[in-house]
Every structure is written in C-alpha cells, then in structure tokens.
Predict the 3D structure of the following.
Amino acid sequence: MPIVVNIDVMLARRKMSAGELAEKVGITPANLSILKNNKAKAIRFSTLEALCRALDCKPADLLDYTDD
C-alpha cells in the first residue's frame, strides 16, 4: 500500500509508549498496532485528529505516500 503510517517515528520523538498513546487517543492497543504496522485499510478523521492532538503533530507527520 502506498500510504505509510509513521506512528513509530512520532512515538520515538515524543518518548511515548504505544500503550500511553492508545490510552490518550482512546483506542485499543490492538487497533493502534494495526495502524503502526501499516495493516489498516482506513482511518477515521476523528482518530487521526486524536493522534495528532496526543502527539502534537500534523497529519503529514503521521502519513506518508510512497510510489510503489
């Protein structure tokens, strides 16, 4: 899939654990793992907004496009 989710990068920059992020965002650790491992087929804007708020970033910091 050409859309890459860079949650791991932002977690490292913020020195935050995945469990802490899942709690702040209000999603299960399993669903966060699906996003982190680029297994998700879609993401709700409300979830993207919550991720950006928790990580103090913009959507472009989390999502990247790569040409296959």
Remarks:
- The chain has a mean pLDDT of 94.
